[in-house]
Amino acid sequence: MPTELSRLANSLTPSPTRAFDKQARELAASGKNILFFTLGEPDFPTPKNIKRAALAAIKKDFTHYTPVSGIPELRQAICDKFKRDNNLAYSPDQIVVNAGVANSLYLAFNCILNPGDEVIIPVPSWPTVFSQVKSTGAVPVFVQCKEENDFEVQFEDIAAAITEKTKCIVLNSPCNPTGAIIPEKTIKKICELASEKNIWLLSDEIYEKLTYSGKHISPAIYHQNTITLNGVSKAYAMTGWRIGYTAAPIQLATAITSLQGLVIGNPTSVSQKAAVEAFIGSQSSVSKMKKEFRNRRDLIVKLINEIPHLHANLPKGAFYAFTNVSGLFNKKTPDGKTLSNSVDVAAYFLNEALVATTPGQPFGSDAHIRLSYACSQEQIIEGMAQIDAAVRKLR
Ligand SMILES: Cc1ncc(COP(=O)(O)O)c(C=O)c1O
Question: Which among 163, 176, 303, 393 has most CB atoms closer than 10 A?
Answer without folding.
Answer: 176
